Amino acid sequence: MEEQLAENVAAVQQQIAEAAKRSGRDASDVCLVGVTKYVDVATTRALVAAGCRTLGENRPQVLWEKSSEMQDLDVRWHMIGHLQRNKVKRTVESTALIHSCDSLRLLKSIQEAGLQSGKLVDVLLEVNVSGEVAKHGFSPDEMASVIEAIEPLNSLRVTGLMCMAGLGSGQQDVRREFDLLRELLESNRGSAPPNVELRELSMGMSRDFEVAIEAGATLVRVGSSLFRGLR
């Protein structure tokens, strides 16, 4: 298993480097977030040994359990799935970055948890760039007002934006959706308050992370490509 994982990580890193080069960027500009939602702790540990030290989980309870069981390893945990407000406190304590902030109510709960723990919480704002009703996230049209409303929340720091491409989107639509997220980040950066830095773009998964990098992604959330060929 360890050898296969090492090969997979190397292959994904090579794809990242090539996509970055095509867009005039350096591979070091892009962080690989290894999505471990379908694998157990042993496999997750093996992935870390293979060189992937930034890990993403979709479910808060699994993130809590894995981060607790893997405290001996140098790992940065990212929460990338939908987060309910009643799960905020433990998630804030366990993560380096929360990608999926999709409402002001959630952001205010994170603010409260940050105050209680004495921690400045790094978050991303999730944007529904595809317009799909089933998807979470702020609409592109409300980004300016959302960013303005975040200014008083001084226990959190918005480091960027996050999105998921539409499930039925073809390659051209995917690129358009990723370009939209980058444009939102760029257009709102100049007027953002101090606690909204807007430097990270979390977009792209196994099926489209190369397109995402070409569009400006700094964080790509890759799962199945890292575990290909494992029994």
Summarize, please.
With 231 residues, this protein is an alpha/beta fold. The chain has eight helices and eight strands. The chain starts with a helix and ends in a 9-residue tail after the last strand.
Explained architecture:
The protein has 231 residues and is α/β, with parallel strands linked by helices. It has one domain: TIM Barrel (Alpha-Beta Barrel). 41% of the residues lie in helices and 18% in strands. The chain is built from 8 helices and 8 strands. It has an 8-stranded parallel beta sheet with strand order 7-6-5-4-3-2-1-8. Helix 1 packs parallel to helix 8. The protein is globular, with a radius of gyration of 17 Å. The relative contact order is 0.16.
Low-confidence stretches: none
Query: Strand content of the residues, in percent?
Result: 15-25%
Look at the structure and name the CATH superfamily: Alanine racemase
Q: Could you estimate the helical fraction of the residues in percent? A: 40-55%
String of helices and strands? HEHEHEHEHEHEHEHE
Distance between the termini: 8 Å
Q: What would CATH call the architecture?
A: Alpha-Beta Barrel
Number of helices: 8
Mean pLDDT: 96
For the biggest β-sheet, the strand order reads 7-6-5-4-3-2-1-8
Q: CATH topology, anyone? A: TIM Barrel
From the helix content, strand content and strand pairing, which structural class follows?
A: alpha/beta
